[in-house]
Amino acid sequence: MHSLELLNRIQQTWLARVSRHFAQREPVRDSFLHELNRFYDLLQQFLSSGDVTSIDPILIEWSDSLTQSDLEESDAILSPLCDVIFSFAYDICHDLLSQPEALELISALLPVHTHAISFTNKLEKDREIDNIRLRMEKMRTELERLDKSKSDFISVAAHELKTPLTLIEGYAAMLREMISGSDRTDQIAMLLGGMEQGSRRLKRIIDDMIDVSLIDNNLLTLNFQPLWLDRLFSILREEFSTAVSERNQRFEINTFEGCNEMIFADPERLYQALQNLISNAVKYTPDGGYIKIDGRELPGFLEVIIEDTGIGIASEDQMRIFEKFNRIGDATLHSSGKIKFKGGGPGLGLPITKGIIEAHGGALWVESAGYDEEMFPGSTFHVLIPNRKEPPDDKFAKLFGPLIKTTEARGI
Ligand code: ADP
What we know:
alpha+beta; 61% helix; 11 helices; binds adenosine-5'-diphosphate; two-stranded antiparallel sheet; 10% strand
């Protein structure tokens, strides 16, 4: 009870000094004085009841009133404020009260001071965590929006480019028919050949852009059909035979258990995926290098392994290469060559390949000891393909039912 009287004795000086301290740069606002008076009332309440939580309501209100920019500055605001308020009370105790009285009031106030510091610290930490969570959520939404507009742009640009390209292709074909028999046939045919080659290359890029936007928007539909990996490999061997011999590379395809068994997958898309990986292996391996396709049967999956003795991939890039437009190195060095050493493309091949494999329910990843254009550590791409013995769709299951039974009976 005595400490309550002592508090009343320092009230006016304390209010005046605290408000003067906070008004050093601007006049004290009425609202601030009002808050200080409320704080003082709650201190009185505490001294009568002994309950340190008496001051919690005002601390919660102060914490709620912090603005977004206060929070973004991240430094604590409330606990230093409480410290200042209490330090003034202690100083005034020394100035206005006798030593035993000062000691009594300070000891009476200490528990509520300690509580105020720990409570405001907790309040501020909670708010900071909420604030960080909110900012992360905002950033995630913004990133999603950016990614969506990037993918919308790809889709629109691809479709817009496709129409004029179709016109060029059509007119080039008509011109080819018209010049047959003319005396400058050879010269014109050479020019036409150049046009046709250019438009074929452009068409491939546009098709890749469309595929990327289909994958981005979860619109890639697979046409599940029976396929045999070894047959796919034979076609790929045939397709790349000229390229690897031009580059003097050794291209080896090993058969492995399961590769001659029928599985259900989208043959065209799987072909496209493996073609991308082999074409990269050819491109990023120097002349005279070695490219090997191997694999193994795993529970529920067939794993295809594409290994090369090329320039390799730095560990920090091994995730990045699967993101669209993320070709490594100097982006201005696009040569668009399909098999030329390091003849990069637009950086869409691997994202499409990954999208195709994942749409099948599989996985794609790379292993490489690093990037080195002198030692050629090589890269190994792993493709996990679900070993589906039936198409996922009922309709197809009915259609291919008899075939499934025959292959089961033959054990292939
Ligand atoms: P690009 O059109 O550039 O070939 P990709 O998406 O197919 O695009 O590949 C992305 C990048 O990954 C390439 O630019 C290259 O830096 C790297 N890369 C892909 N395959 C290999 C490989 N077998 N060896 C070394 N680097 C590779």
